[in-house]
């Protein structure tokens, strides 16, 4: 956001510094994000182990049904098509992220079991698999967000469904490109299909840009919440910006102007003759 404002982004009047201060604290209301993510990873490993024993999976982990097996093998499927429509469809992206998340969770389970095989206690085995648990939780989060996004799109009004579907596809595809190694490792996408996804993202950005303003306004943040003259709903940016600056800097005489600044401004270039010194007479 700051970068998109250009030089104005460095001004305190934009309200970005206050917005960041208000936002940063939300990351630690219920604990540090890394700790919470590790706890999520622990839950994922425990749930996957229970599923192996025949326990039902919760709805947010239903994608593990096709990936888990008692012997530990992974079967996560792959993308069969190569066209843009086949590679970037919302259903394909959901399956792709499910594949990556399932693969990450199963790898975390393997690391946990490797810790147990080394003779570690259960808690220490979880610590042993911390890195893979953290990664599994992150992949699961992307998958969960995309699935929830897609579910809400299906419930949206018919007139809004095309642009929201494209926005969901853009989220899923762009995130996949950022983590393309995961998709190649899981075997869902091949290298050529990743390149097709990149082409789709370029196209999707150009299409979504046409509706960028109404999509942003749809969040419904009031001018009071945004608290920035550069983010006003009515677009009256520069007049409100100037009003804010002048209100916080009222015109009044500067107490030290006459004694210090004015003499510097009115000085001449003539060299003043100083008092004669005895050394000048020698």
Q: Could you walk me through the main structural features you see in this protein, from its secondary elements to its overall organization?
A:
By secondary structure, this protein is mainly α. Helices cover 60% and strands 0% of the residues. The protein is built from 13 helices and no strands. The protein has helices spanning 16-24, 33-52, 84-88, 90-117, 122-128, 130-155, 161-178, 180-186, 191-208, 212-217, 223-226, 237-248, 257-265. Helix 2 (33-52) packs across helix 6, helix 4 packs antiparallel against helix 6 (130-155) and helix 4 crosses helix 8. The chain is elongated. The model has no long low-confidence stretch (mean pLDDT 86).
How would you briefly describe this protein structure?
The chain has 13 helices and no strands.
Task: Give the overall average pLDDT.
Answer: 86
Order of helices and strands: HHHHHHHHHHHHH
Considering DSSP H and I runs of 4 or more, what fraction of the residues is helical? 55-70%
Structural class by secondary-structure content = mainly alpha
Shape: elongated
Percent range for β-strand residues: under 5%
**What's the main sheet like?**
none
What is the gyration radius calculated from CA atoms? 30 Å
N- to C-terminal distance? 71 Å
Give the helix tally. 13
Which features would summarize this protein structure in a list?
0% strand, 282 residues, mainly alpha, elongated
What order do the helices and strands come in, and which of them pair?
Layout: H1 16-24, H2 33-52, H3 84-88, H4 90-117, H5 122-128, H6 130-155, H7 161-178, H8 180-186, H9 191-208, H10 212-217, H11 223-226, H12 237-248, H13 257-265
